[in-house]
Amino acid sequence: MAMAAARAAAAAGGPSSLSRFRGALVAAVLGDCVGGEFEGAEEVPMESVLQHLSNLDDETKGNGILEYSDDTAMARCVVQSLLTRAGFDEQDMARRFAKEYSMSPGRGYGSGVIQVLKKLSSPHLSDVYQPAKDQFNGRGSFGNGGAMRAAPFALAFPDPADVKRCARQGAMLTHSCSLGYNGAVLQALAVHLSLQGAIDKPQQFMSRLITEMEVVEGNEETRNDARILKEAEKPFCERLHRVRDLMDRSKVSIEEVISELGNGIAALHSVPTAIFCVLHCLQPRECLPANYGGLERTIAYSLALGGDTDTIACMAGAIAGAHYGIEAVPQSWIRCCEGAEDADMNAGRLQMLYRRSLQGGVGSGTGERRCEDPAESRSSAANGFERKARAE
């Protein structure tokens, strides 16, 4: 495993290399596009996954045969806003989300976020965070919609403090529950660390994620949300410890992964799962072709879990792509996935923004100001129906 990781690191180049940027953004799109085939399925035989992926090698199918979903549509808005504003601008990003939805509403948006996006399109809206806060009687959504589009924040800001703040603020435009936006923070941190080559040492990578999330979840708001939803006091930390436990087992079944981590639309049931997929597939697996590289194994394994396959594969793809680099991405997959070439181009532009940030030339807030945490006041209660809706 150590040798395989070393070879992957050599192929991807050094920390924050252009190859890693390209790999992260392109593999995220691929995970979304190829994952759409199995979204919502309770059981996905590995044979079906491998057949689906092998079909991508058929050049007669042409470009753009696999369409991206709302995952990529919103991530593209994040990228364009960060590049246009040279930093995080919540007003600009909110407008882009609303416009993107109005132009292409059939991308698979959940009913909850549609309500928010329609309100964000109002020219009279003064607080772009208010529509998300108003959802579910002020309790907000805890779905993975913020996490699925979080990778670009890790590619724009070299400072992990900026990555965390901006991922949180970007997610809160649609998901104001801490179990929603903290999932976005975790996903962005995982991509950030992978970009630095941290996955070369998987156990240390997990320790750093847990340490970071201990701080992120160390506030009363998170504890209150966790109590309401009957989760552990620090839900994401608890899930990351489960990831570590699964990593230590000699054999882990797909059923065990789903039982321990989940495969659903809640951020808590998908972001840690995506992280596990990457780490589990660092080495060859009996159920996967011997000629598959680590990124291919990661995408295939993500799909075999069923459930929210496009989003889990999208998030796992971003983390794995940042680790292995663009050289690990099959060209046949890129040709078959809508938006992959645009993602490749934008990765280079994001790296330029990243480097300017390193030189102190870019702010991480609106214009030149830093991201600030908006005050939130939310009542607390939940029932079974609302738990499902809030996870959209």
UniProtKB/TrEMBL annotation:
GO CC annotation terms, alphabetical: chromosome; mitochondrial matrix; nucleus
Annotated Gene3D superfamilies: ADP-ribosylation/Crystallin J1
Leader peptide range in chain numbering: none
Catalytic activity: alpha-NAD(+) + H2O = ADP-D-ribose + nicotinamide + H(+)
Biased composition (Basic and acidic residues): 367-376
Keyword Lyase: no
Record localization: Chromosome; Cytoplasm; Mitochondrion matrix; Nucleus
Keywords of the record: Chromosome, Cytoplasm, DNA damage, DNA repair, Hydrolase, Magnesium, Metal-binding, Mitochondrion, Nucleus
Cofactor binding mode and count: Binds 2 magnesium ions per subunit.
Single annotated GO MF: poly(ADP-ribose) glycohydrolase activity
Sites where the protein binds Mg(2+): 69-71, 308, 310-311
InterPro entries noted in UniProt: ADP-ribosylglycohydrolase, Ribosyl_crysJ1, Ribosyl_crysJ1_sf
EC number(s) per entry: 3.2.1.143
Location of the region described as Disordered in the Swiss-Prot/TrEMBL record: 361-392
Matching PANTHER family: ADP-RIBOSYLGLYCOHYDROLASE, ADP-RIBOSYLHYDROLASE ARH3
Subunit relationships: Monomer.
Name recorded for this polypeptide: ADP-ribosylhydrolase ARH3
Organism in which the protein naturally occurs: Liparis tanakae (Tanaka's snailfish)
UniProt lineage: Eukaryota, Metazoa, Chordata, Craniata, Vertebrata
Gene that produces this protein: adprhl2
